[in-house]
Amino acid sequence: MDHLLVLLLLCSSGVQAEEKHNSESDDVRLVGGASHCAGTLELKHLGEWRVVDGYAWTLKHAAIVCQLLDCGSAVSVEWRIETPNKSVWEMEIECIQSGSAVRDCVTSDSSPVITNVTCADSVRLLNGSSLCSGRLEVKSNQSWSSVCEADFDQQDAEVVCRELGCGPPSVLQGALYGEVEAPVWSKEFQCGGHESALLDCRSSGSARNSCSLGKAVGLTCSEPDDVRMVGGANPCAGILELKHLGEWRPMYEFGWTLKDAAPICEHLDCGSAVSLQQTKSSLKFGWRIKPDCVKSRSTLRECTTSGYYNPIMNLTCSDSVRLLNGSSLCSGRLEVKSNQSWSSVCEADFDQQDAEVVCRELGCGPPSVLQAALYGEVEAPVWSKAFQCGGHESALLDCRSSGSARNSCSPGKAVGLTCSESDDVRLVGGASRCAGSLELKLGEWRPVEASEWILGKAAVICEHLHCGSLDYVEARNESLLRSVWRLKPDCVQSGSALRECATSEYSLMIMNFTCSDLLIQPNIHAFSMDGVSEAQQQGLQVSSRSNFTISCSIQPQYPGGSFQLTFTSSNTTYSYTQPAVNHSAHFLFPAAEPVHQGNYSCVYHIYVFSHNFSSESRLLSVAISDSADSPAPTASTVHTITGVVLLLILLIVITALYFSWKASRELKLRRKENTDVVYYNYSDHGAEGGSAEDESHRLKGAHLKSK
Predict the structure, then answer these.
(1) What local confidence, expressed as pLDDT, does residue 700 receive?
(2) Which of 247, 401, 478, 537 is the most exposed place for a label (fewest CB within 10 A)?
(3) Gap between the Cα atoms of 298 and 93, Å rounded
């Protein structure tokens, strides 16, 4: 009885689910197309049919509509604008995906947007990793059937992949995406490979009633060759174009970062993403790829939507080097591309100068770590020659290489490289490098837009600039709309480099930062009247009752301000404040006492930019000792005093000798003057006809003069 009740409940729930599906499919339709699985999307809600606004829908959104209509896989979706505005329904696809009824996920709106969806009529792929992979089912007479591997070959697979808008088949394997589910397609397909739909192919006359376990067709179609770069210096640079719905159109740059663009470079078999810029275009209709969709590892065609946007994306990827498995675009295991093949590089063939070239080529800063196997082991093939760069080349393949070839590389010897982040962030217009408007360089310097930021996340910028913690951040209105970079906070908080988290925008709002290291650290010095100044590490030792002075100073940044001298001992804390005069202040202690023993620091305070800021010096230790306990003079002090005394003695001796010489010289001059006077007197007497004795004296004077 219990088993019967369970069976009845299961049957009842199955019937209810089928009725719910049929009810919801009756409320959704595609009109104006070649079949009921193609056309303009309309929805019946509250008894009224209206078109659905599918603005920015992708194939992943359209797949839900195809499922509701019991059609095959989603092939295309496109929205366009019609004027004037009209009443529309908006469907929340995420709401429907959560299991809610369609009617619970619909809102009314007024919009000029209408949505065209195309689903496959009669084939679908289930349980795959993308819309181009899964277990194959075919629809006939309103019923879906599994296909047996024995009835399906490579040419049949080519038709299915083409019908679904995918690339050529890459994998055809039984039970790859699940077992056979009843019912089973009864006939063998016999396609030529050129048909546009699987049901257009011929089929065998014999019928199959069963299929062995593990034999359901599992099909993986490759992604179509639908992305290219045009107008650049090589196939890895230029304007990004996407082929969708059979038409090449430019891809519009809409919230993309370098980190988002990395899968595009990978899809094109290029190296790492290097730069991302906007290019103005006169074209008004193009394709847009949602970066969040691509990051989920969905294929590009599943993440594409049509739209009217400007500007378009100009992307540059490195064409011959890439770093894999790293924590950022500037770190990883090095690979080099030549002849359309990527090769690992052996540590023995790569040095610091080679690393400088690679980091420059990738738009990163200088190499910071070069270590074997840091980001994984060698993978074949291995680059065969040693690089011999000078360090100035613009690309690694521009460097010379050795003549000898290498065929293998020992395990653990693959080049692991970490480049530093480029100096691509700055604060400008402030009084120091730690204050001002935030600017970022991605090919060109631009200010950073102020949206989405909160105080906690903005602190990362101060840390990046080595400016301490964040004091405040504010948004400032500009008078004119200008090109800016927008940093995605979640990306920055995840530890990604700032250059990887920037996207191009137009905005009036820019960011102003002030970090805690707006002020440089003040200096503190001390000296006592004992003639002793403090050593950098040992501090100052002062004799009791001696006076000492502590000086605070700071390099000139702003006028004014004040210095607060803080003193901390084991029991108490004091502070003294003086205005800053010529960017310094001096605190005199007339008589040192034991209570003055402790640690001192200078805190500089100033009010600028409508905020109070402060900066503290290092700690200075002051010890007070009794005079009797004062330390004995050191050998250097004794030598200094001895030298001074000897100099003084020498100076005194020299001075005494000088004055002695000077006195002796003056005495000789006076004697000479007296002798000249005697000679002339005697001469005068002789002229008057004196005595013989007088004449004798005259001759004697003449004899003295001749001497």
Answers:
(1) 41
(2) 537
(3) 17
Nearest Cα to 467, choosing from 613, 619, 620?
613
Rounded CA-CA distance 465/197 in Å is 60
- Whether the CA torsion 617, 619, 620, 624 is positive or negative: it is positive
Closest-CA residue to 35 (of 120, 128, 94): 120
- Residue count of the chain, please give it: 707
Write down the residue that tokens 């000086």 correspond to.
551
Neighbours of 269 (CB within 10 A): 15
Q: How far apart are CA 487 and CA 505, in angstroms?
A: 10
Burial of 239 (0-12, 13-18, 19+ CB in 10 A): middle
Find all residues with CB under 8 Å of 163, minimum gap 6, and list them: 75, 120, 123, 196, 197, 198
Residue type, 416: G
% pLDDT > 90, the chain = 29
Nearest to 360 by CA among 336, 392, 383, 327: 392
Mean pLDDT calculated for residue range 330-354: 92
pLDDT, one tens digit per residue, over 476-518 is 888 888 888 888 877 877 778 878 888 877 888 888 888 877 7
SS3 (DSSP) at 153: coil
Could you tell me the pLDDT band of residue 672, with boundaries at 50, 70 and 90?
low
Distance of CA 376 to CAs 103, 361, 384, Å?
52, 22, 19
**How far, CA to CA in Å, does 446 sit from each of 381, 452, 483, 502?**
42, 18, 7, 11
Q: How far apart are CA 168 and CA 188, in angstroms?
A: 21
CA distance 217 to 336: 38
Q: pTM (2 decimals)? A: 0.61
Query: C-alpha distances in angstroms, 113 versus 116, 250, 561?
Result: 10, 21, 61
pLDDT band at 308; cut points 50, 70, 90:
low
Give the whole-angstrom CA distance, residue 109 versus residue 443. 42
Q: How far apart are CA 425 and CA 446, in angstroms?
A: 10
Give the pLDDT of residue 65. 93
Report yes or no: 45 and 106 within 8 Å, Cβ to Cβ: yes
Taking residues 121-128, report their average pLDDT: 94
Cα separation, 400 vs 393, whole angstroms:
10
- 553: helix, strand or coil: strand
What would the two tokens of residue 426 be? 């700055």
Report whether pLDDT(534) > 80. no
Element (H, E) at 258: helix 258-267
Number of H helices, E strands in the chain: 11, 40
Tens of pLDDT, residues 409-467: 777 788 999 998 776 788 998 877 888 898 988 778 889 887 666 556 777 788 777 77
Query: Which pLDDT score, from 0 to 100, does residue 415 have?
Result: 92
Name the DSSP letter for residue 649: H
H or E element at residue 277? strand 273-279
Euclidean distance between the first and the last CA atom of the chain, given in angstroms as a whole number: 166
Q: What tokens appear for 280 in the block? A: 């103005």
- Cis peptide bond N-terminal to 594, omega within 30: no
In the numeric block, the tokens 């390099």 are attached to: 555
Contact between 59 and 116 under an 8 Å Cβ cutoff? The reply is no
Q: Which residues pair with 543 in a beta bridge?
A: 625
